[in-house]
Amino acid sequence: MGFFHKKKQNTDIVLSDGIVMKQPLQMETSSWLRNCMVKSLLVFSVVFGSIGCFLSSFEMDYYIILTAGILFAMALLFTTIYYRGWIMDVVYIVFLFIFFFAVQAFWTYINSGYYLLINRVLSTVEDYFELPGMQYYEIAAKNEVLAVSVVVIFIGTVMMIVANVIISRTMNVWFLLIMTGLLWILPMYFRLEADAFYVILMLTGYIAVWSIRSSGAYGMDRKHRDYKWKDKRGKQLRIWYVQDAATMLEGMGIFAVAVLLLYGLASMIGQKDTFSIRYRQNPYKEESEVLAQELTSKGFSIFNRYEAVGGVAKGQLGGVGSVRPDYQTDLIVTFAPYSYEPVYLKAYTGIDYVSGDFTWRTNELPLMDNDLIIEDTPYGDVKSPGSDYEAGLCKASERGARGSMWIQNTGADVDSPYAPYHTPALDMAALASSVMKTTEDEDDSDLGVMYTDLSIITGGIAQNETMSYTFYPPVNEAELRRKAETLSEEEEQERLAHLQQAEEWYLNVPEECYAAVAEASQAAGIRPGDTQEEIIQKVKDYFEAEFQYTTRPGRSPRSEDFVTHFLREKKGYCTYFATAAAMLYRYNGIPTRYIEGYVITYEDIMTSDLNEELDYKDFYQGFSPLGETGVVEVEVTDARAHAWVEVFDPYLGWMPEEVTTAAVAPDEDLESFWDIFGDDPSGNEEGELGDGFNLGNMDWNLDDIRGIWIGLLAVFCLLGLFTAGRKGYRNWKLYQSWHTESMNENVLAYYHIISERLRRKDSDYAQCPTYQRQLQYIAVHCEEWNWDAGYMAKLLERACYSRNGISDFDCRRLMIELTDIEKKVKKWKH
Amino acid sequence: MGKRIIRIIGYFILFTVNAGLLWFFHNFLNFVIMAVMVFLPIISIVATKQVADRLKADWRGPYETMKKGEEFFVHLVLTNPTWIGIMNCRLNLQVSNLFYGTGRIHDLRVPLRAGKGQTITYPVTVSQCGMIEFRIQSIILEDFLGVMAFRREVPSVYLASVLPRTDAGMETDLNGFTEGMEEVEESTRKGTDFSEVQDVREYQPGDKMQNIHWKLSVKKDILMVKERVSMSSRQLFLLLELHDNENGLMEEVLECTYGIAKLMLQYQLPLSLVWWSTRTQELVIWKVDYAEQLAEGYRMIYYEELYPQQILGKEMYQTIRGSEAQFLWVGNRNFGTGDPIMEYGKSAGVFYGILS
Question: Cβ contacts of residue A362 below 8 Å, gap of 6+?
């Protein structure tokens, strides 16, 4: 019993006419704290059981005692503060602060733990669907077990909060099943089995929730009553207890034993490890697996929500915030390796940079003698980007070589040729001619030709069809250069025409990026008079020194030019580098064009399969820096899609130049845990706010979210400071009000402060109008009242109404008594 | 019942969903859940049946009579000797006032702890006199899953007789009445038996000498003796009219009668409560010499049935008792004869019983 109880709203329960209960019904129920503990056990068993089912199914290691202990403590905290009025609000706010700080403190572990979970799921998916080549996340944390524990604690805490609300308010097992069901249903799909402990824990929790809900005794309310009653007119009076920890605990115990026994019984009937194997596969599940496999292979996954997958973009530069390859094979390239240098396969040539994209404005290009017009392409009648000049130069080289390359399109864009460098233009024309045509020279008829008519219908290589190219690799550049300098007159004319065309059409720098390019050129240290080689190298060095490679640069804003944005942000992927390099070179007078395609590195070759059935000589003839190698089949995934530039060498013609830096951004491999909430695969650009922060698209990066957090924290801090300051100011004003020179006024002010507090706490007290009534009320309800309430009231009345007031002695005496009353008032319970 | 059906449907849906998952996934976890969902209701029902068979229920309360307006505690003791705790034990309890024939059933839901049970205490305050009855209509135990219920009939009743409060104002109201008693009071204080001469007759052998009326004997020349009648043998009859009136008249009659009776007992004056019993169709005269007898008398009154007639008791008394019909009649003062010697409450009054 407290100081006195605030009168509740008509607590009289009418049992019959003239028979009432004026006091609460008394029965033996558990204390509020015990109820909270049992409820926290419920929350814990459901949430931790479900999480444990997930983790044990995927055989994830974690510190079980540490995790379980912290999660139970969290459950206890949330159930204890629930419905505790302002305490709940304060604790939630404080918890929010702590949570944010903890997220910041354990950022690496949270990310790593999350990635470990995802990696394990991906690994399972890879094994189950037999999909090799899954891309896994790199793990930064050294202690992986701890990382998993940390992320489980954080995710589990959030789930605890939600589960506590469900259990405290509705005790609804359906909501809990919806919230936690995926955790134990997902592993089922992959025929994974959870550990018995977690299954028993989870099922016990579910059954207990169902049972308590059925009993109706779950409603914790703001008043923390032991029982409730309902007496509606015309209906039977109902009285029921709210909750009893002892009975709930007994019930949970019975359920746990029952589930344990039934688990044992089930184990006797069907062995856990072989249960799913003994049964035939469900035909519908098989169908779903085919579908899931297909979707997964195409990169559709809840974990891989990226805006763009790999492959060529055909000069479409902006509007992509991040790129995520699906690591599926786009091309199978069969050829004989001849160099350590990367092999570039051209798919697209960008000529004009207009409004942030590269276009193929080839209708306006002057027709040259050795160029071919490709008709009926998706772009209209276009001039072949290929030229016989470079191929011819290589072909004419005395120490040159000739190679053949089979390119099978297994998943790449069907409108692109994917031709190796120094392929004669005739081959390129064949792509659009709809005429089956061999590409080998007349004297090389022994080369096997694998392409068919279908492969060239669309001007590219159709899906699953193969194109055979003959190319002349520039294996001896010095000789080529010497030869180019000693051309015949006719050949020199051709070279000059080629140069004239390049200088006329490949030096344009659009106005929208001109200033940024000029500034970058200066920053790169390019001086007038620098040679072409120096300029090329300075740009490369500049990129290497100050730019970072990332596949998640964030979407470039519409309001800003693509190149300008990149030169300012200094991060991006190959498309960014190639575009900016093209503009920089052009700005400095070097004809340059933007190229997209695929690149085959030496590492790719080394990890590829050797096709021993094919003869090396059929694929390569002539000088090879690697010597006689073999025929390899390289599976080129979309991760090898690339962008680079071609710069025009006055003698050698168009030569590929790699300008993408190798400097990877520090957080490139560590994707943010929170990015899963921020990515929007739709690519919708509506709602753009500018400067990269796109609320409508949820196109946030880590820095943005951190900024929001800091902003939120600042707001909370300011609110906290404001609240504390306001309270402090009010207390100071109150203190001042009863510390004046007049003792009479001090006594009265002090009494009014106490009285006001009581008035707020007790509505009955608020009804007492006079000092007499107020003090009598306090005297009646005060447990230890030692003073004469009537005399005190008279003194106060005199102090208030009498002209002379009361003596200082009486004032001091009253103050002592009021101080004691104030202490009791502070302990006054609702 | 409706909720139970909803639960059964919900359980069936869960069972079906799990069966579907088992068919689809062939997972051991689903198999375990299936086993649990099949056997758990059986376990639950059997366990609850055990509790229902062995559950004991009893009322406990104070044995002494209660006072109107005072709070007293009635305990319902449920004993669960099994090791199975029940979360939902539903009791249909009836609380009635047998005298007024009013009552109400309420639904009480309590937990039953294993090996212990539950004690529920009703802190009851009664604002009407009468015989208060607490009765267990039935006990319904729901199983853990809430899909089946077991009903038990437990013949346990608690009765409490509620007497009127002794009104402090009654003494002042009874001034007129007590004035007529002053002589009685005086004689009581002297320790002598107050008596009066009822008749004078001729002497008969055995008469006391002190009863000889000497003056008259001299005048008539024959011994005459005074026949004295003791006042203690001429008790006060308080006739209650057990008239069923919705305006609280019966309550005022009971209180008024009780007040007078208490006052008389305070002065050690015997009295008799008189009422007409429609149950036995006879005039009941209950002699009251001390407080316990008064309480017992009221207890008997509380078992009577109220009748609609305003003065049935008075008429029956006069019919049966005839010339001896000297009494105080307590009833509706609008139906009394002459001026009331006392008015009580809104409509009760006390009248000298006079032959009409």
Answer: A351, A379, A382, A383, A385
Asked if A188 and B85 come within 8 Å (Cβ–Cβ), the reply is no
Q: Rounded distance, CA A116 to CA A565, Å? A: 34
- CB contact under 8 Å between B85 and A254, yes or no, is yes
B85 at the A interface (CB within 8 A)?
A: yes
For B242, the token pair is 């057990």
Chain B interface test: which of A1, A5, A14, A15 (most B C-beta within 10 Å): A15
Task: Quick: pLDDT tens for A757-786.
Answer: 888 777 778 778 788 888 888 887 776 777
Amino acid identity, residue A92?
Answer: Y
For chain A, give the mean pLDDT.
77
Chain B CA closest to residue A196: B29
Q: Give the CA radius of gyration of chain B.
A: 33
Distance CA A220, CA A32 (A): 9
Cα–Cα dist A379/A358, whole Å: 13
CA A69 to chain centre: 28
Residue A274: Cβ-neighbour burial (10 angstroms; 0-12, 13-18, 19+): exposed
Q: Name, in order, each residue with C-beta under 8 angstroms of A402's C-beta and a sequence gap of 6 or more.
A: A395, A444, A470, A471, A472, A620, A621, A622
Strands A419-420 and A343-350: antiparallel
Rounded to whole angstroms, how far apart are CA atoms A207 and A459? Answer: 64
**Distance of alpha carbon A366 from alpha carbon A497, whole angstroms:** 10
Which of these, A598, A603, A415, A580, lies nearest to A509 by C-alpha position?
A580
Question: How far A55 CA sits from the closest chain B CA (Å)?
Answer: 14
Nearest-10 Cα torsion for A88, A91, A92, A94: 160
HSE-CB at A578 with a 13 A cutoff on CA atoms is 30
Q: Tokens 């002090």 label which residue?
A: A750
Are the beta carbons of A109 and A147 closer than 8 angstroms?
A: yes
Contact between A193 and B29 using a beta-carbon 8 Å cutoff: yes
Count Cβ neighbours within 10 Å for each residue of A196-215 and write b for 16 or more, e otherwise: bebbbbbbbbbbbbbbbbbb
Sort out which chain A residues have CB atoms less than 8 A from B36's CB and list them: 203, 207, 258-259, 262-263
Q: How far is B242 from chain A (nearest CA, A)?
A: 18
Give the residue carrying structure tokens 């090996």. B115
CA angle in degrees (0–180, nearest 5) for B124-B127-B128 = 115
CA dist A778 and A827 (Å) reads: 13
> Is A27 part of the contact surface with chain B (CB cutoff 8 Å)?
yes
Ranges of beta strands (E only) in A443-530 are: 466-471
pLDDT of A456 strictly over 70 = no
CA distance B329 to B275: 10
Please name the residues between 233 and 262 in chain A that touch chain B, using a CB distance below 8 Å: 236-241, 244, 246-248, 250-251, 254-255, 258-259, 262
Quick one: what percent of chain A has pLDDT higher than 70?
A: 77
Smallest CA-to-CA distance from B67 within B291, B249, B317 is with B291
Q: Which residue has the tokens 């629930």?
A: A82
Q: What is the ipTM of this complex?
A: 0.79
Q: What angle do CA B290, B296, B302 make, to 5 degrees?
A: 140
Do residues B195 and B208 make contact, with C-beta atoms less than 8 angstroms apart? Answer: no
Burial of B217 (0-12, 13-18, 19+ CB in 10 A): middle
d(CA A78, CA A158): 11
In this complex, do B123 and A212 lie within 8 Å of one another by their Cβ atoms? no
Q: A260: pLDDT confidence band, cut at 50, 70 and 90?
A: very high
* B186 pLDDT tier (thresholds 50, 70, 90): very low
- Give pTM, 2 decimals: 0.57
- Taking each helix axis as running N to C, give the angle between helix A144-169 and helix A173-189, from 0 to 180 degrees, rounded to the nearest 10: 150
Tokens of A666: 């520090």
∠ at Cα A133 (A132, A139), nearest 5°? 120
Distance, CA of B321 to CA of B276 (rounded, Å): 12
